Amino acid sequence: MNFSGLVLLFIVYFSIAPEVPVIDQAYSKLSNSITVEWADVAGATSYQVIAQAGTLFFESTVTGSPGTVTGLQAATTYKITVRSINSAGKSQPSPPKWAKTVLAAASVTVESFSSDSVSVGWQPVPSAVLYSVSVMRSDGSGTRWNQNTTSLSLNFTSLDPGTIYTIKVHAWDANGIPGDDITYSQITRPAAPSDVQITFNSGALEATFFVAEADGLSNYTILLYGGDTSINCTLSVSPCTITSLQCGTEYVVSLLANNEAGSTLAPKTWSLLSVPCAPIGIAVVEDNPGNLTVSWSHGNLSDYYVVFVKSDDGFEVHCNTSQSPCYFPSECGFIYFMSVFAYNKAGQSPLGELLNYTTAPCCPSDITPAFVSGDTLEIVWSGVRGAEMYETKAVDGTTVILCNDTATVCALSGLQCNTQYNVTVFSYSENRGSNTSCASKYMKTAPCSPEIKNITTVDVSSFMVIWESDNDGAEYTVTARGENGLWNCTSSGTSCILGKLPCGSMHMVHVLASTSEGTSLPSYSVPLETAPCCPVNISVVQVTQSVTNVSWSIAVGAQTYTTMLESPKGQAKCHTLEDHCLLGCITCGTSYSVSLEAVSETGLVSQCTYHGYSSSACCPSGVKLYRLSNSGIRVTWRVSPGPENYTVNIYGSKGNFTCSPFPGVSYCDVTEIPCGDVYTVVVSPVSGGDTQISFCPKKNIFCDMLRKFSWNG
Ligand SMILES: *[C@@H]1O[C@H](CO)[C@@H](O)[C@H](O)[C@H]1NC(C)=O
Ligand SMILES: *[C@@H]1O[C@H](CO)[C@@H](O)[C@H](O)[C@H]1NC(C)=O
Ligand SMILES: *[C@@H]1O[C@H](CO)[C@@H](O)[C@H](O)[C@H]1NC(C)=O
Ligand SMILES: *[C@@H]1O[C@H](CO)[C@@H](O)[C@H](O)[C@H]1NC(C)=O
Ligand SMILES: *[C@@H]1O[C@H](CO)[C@@H](O)[C@H](O)[C@H]1NC(C)=O
Ligand SMILES: *[C@@H]1O[C@H](CO)[C@@H](O)[C@H](O)[C@H]1NC(C)=O
Ligand SMILES: *[C@@H]1O[C@H](CO)[C@@H](O)[C@H](O)[C@H]1NC(C)=O
Ligand SMILES: *[C@@H]1O[C@H](CO)[C@@H](O)[C@H](O)[C@H]1NC(C)=O
Ligand SMILES: *[C@@H]1O[C@H](CO)[C@@H](O)[C@H](O)[C@H]1NC(C)=O
Ligand SMILES: *[C@@H]1O[C@H](CO)[C@@H](O)[C@H](O)[C@H]1NC(C)=O
Ligand SMILES: *[C@@H]1O[C@H](CO)[C@@H](O)[C@H](O)[C@H]1NC(C)=O
Ligand SMILES: *[C@@H]1O[C@H](CO)[C@@H](O)[C@H](O)[C@H]1NC(C)=O
């Protein structure tokens, strides 16, 4: 107020100022300004335009018409005056004009809630009676929509999706004056996507999403709902991938297209099936040998299962089933590795538990005895698959003999002879323990040793051996071992006869029992001595009429000999260590039987008989010589009983003479005996054949040259 008083005083003071201008018109195009037009005043260098509303003044200084005052309030009536100015000062204000500012621009919010619409809303503008909204594509194509409304919002539909629109809004006042324009750009939400391509990688449990219609203006959000989780990924022209999907889940896939305006949900959803989870609770049992049962728990979204069973020799089998369990044939001594996979349309479950199962070791099947004796069974067999150790058990009903070994041989010792044992070889493995289903086999130990009870003589070279034994079905072999060899006999009873043993030898006799299982230990040996042999050659030579020399060849086994010549008239006997002896008291002309007893050191006697022996005929007695002539002699004798024929032998250096008289004649004449020599005259009986008897008494006769015989006795 004080200030305006001062101005007034100032104007009065400078009364030489230019003419007062006259306003032609004053109008408002924008809500904060009023434009004023006037006719120029001579001498004015500038003008001051003043707008006044109540006590508020706004002014601007311009060089000429028109001039504009800014900073005004919208929809307000101002009193407008103009003053001209030069160096001398300002003129008086012009006569006032009244002008009203237009309405202010509305405060607008624009949104797109769908792909084909935008919603425009605004705050009420004071004094506005109507609002105009225009919408058109910002690229200028297409229709322009204009609409008037009195309400505070408008929806425009049937727009193109994902398109930028230019929206203009202004208000009208009661005088039909349009207010300030305001322009917005708004993009409509993207079109609803129609399809998404889903690639499921079952191995990595990840899914890749690709939207074919993506043009780079929008991006897309994939939303996966499954179980109690939701996962998302965003993509534009390049695909996006969601990893770490869960197995055994069916996901609902929603697709959103996004731009600045917001998202548009695809009208439909897709389903994404993940692979089933790896089956759990896998169990393997072998209820019956050779039949493995693999079971597992049923898992979500599993259509069927495949069980793979691989043995450690690389052979693999599988079983395809819609439900647990599966049966597999198994063999002894293998390790089986099992894995179970579940399948659905999406593919195969991840690898789950890998189980292994070791079947019981195989049973040895070819158990054979390698050595059998009375107290030992050594058995061998072929090694079997899966066995780490063998446990051999022999049972005879009461006692149990065990042996453990990793080798495929076992010697069961300390057994009873002639006993049947139930022998079982169990195979053993650390994992499965003993295979209790191994078959057993009967095995018998070798027979017990027999005992020789007696040996009796059957004849000179045959002996019956009697033994004692209680083996079943055994065959016995008796062996006699002598210096010169072996002799044997066999029997299944308790005795047999050893024949043709050589004379004069010592034998050790033992008995062996044998069965198909084996041979017993030999019995204790019993000595058996055979009687001495008989001398092969024997000769009986008469030394004198009553003495006979008997000699023989050495007999095996004999120590002493007793020789005996026996006739009804008596016997002659000698007992000697030598191989000959002289027997006296032999009667001439008698038949003797010759026998010899060979006696061994231990007193065994062999009776040996030989051809009979006849002693020589008896010599004649009473031999006398008579001279027959100068050169002949007659020999006479007295015949002895027995011999019929005699022969006379005359021996001398100048010749030998024999004379054989007719039977029954007891003399013989020898003529033409050269003299001058001593002759020996012997008269001998002629026994059958030509045998000469040399021991008859001799007489000597001397024939001197005088042809005279003389003799002494
Ligand atoms: C809206 O109102 C204004 C002022 O009354 C008028 O000039 C214009 O033609 C109207 N527009 C429409 C589309 O009705
Ligand atoms: C415009 O659309 C919005 C959202 O769809 C709705 O809330 C509003 O009522 C609509 N306005 C008119 C005038 O139709
Ligand atoms: C996508 O996932 C992220 C992280 O999990 C989350 O923050 C976001 O809200 C999700 N978006 C949608 C649209 O669900
Ligand atoms: C997707 O588009 C929206 C809106 O345009 C933006 O906010 C967001 O960052 C985009 N996301 C990606 C991953 O590009
Ligand atoms: C295994 O045992 C099951 C049930 O006991 C039976 O059904 C199946 O036939 C057997 N499989 C073989 C190969 O023996
Ligand atoms: C078999 O399985 C057991 C336990 O599951 C494991 O300790 C063993 O090493 C496996 N054996 C083989 C040969 O894989
Ligand atoms: C043999 O081995 C089995 C299993 O280890 C054991 O039970 C048994 O006692 C063993 N027998 C002997 C005689 O060592
Ligand atoms: C033999 O022994 C095995 C194992 O000890 C046993 O199973 C079987 O019954 C026996 N056989 C007889 C006939 O006793
Ligand atoms: C041996 O057998 C003989 C003849 O049978 C008999 O006389 C003798 O007494 C037996 N000896 C023994 C020791 O049995
Ligand atoms: C028994 O003697 C015969 C004849 O000498 C021989 O062939 C056989 O091998 C012998 N038997 C035994 C068991 O010694
Ligand atoms: C004795 O001699 C005669 C004739 O030479 C003969 O025939 C006869 O058999 C002989 N007698 C004896 C006992 O030798
Ligand atoms: C006569 O006999 C003796 C004895 O037999 C004999 O040694 C001798 O040579 C014989 N003399 C003649 C001449 O034959």
From TrEMBL:
Tell me where the transmembrane regions lie: none
Q: Which UniProt keywords apply?
A: Signal
Record's signal peptide: 1-17
Fibronectin type-III domain residues: 17-101, 104-194, 278-362, 446-533
Q: Is Signal given among the entry's keywords?
A: yes
Q: Which InterPro entries match?
A: FN3_dom, FN3_sf, Ig-like_fold
Matching SUPFAM superfamilies: Fibronectin type III
For this protein, the record's Pfam families field holds: fn3
For this protein, the record's PANTHER family field holds: FIBRONECTIN TYPE III DOMAIN-CONTAINING PROTEIN 7 (PTHR47135:SF1)
Q: What is this protein called?
A: Fibronectin type-III domain-containing protein
Q: Which organism is it from?
A: Staurois parvus
- High-level lineage: Eukaryota, Metazoa, Chordata, Craniata, Vertebrata
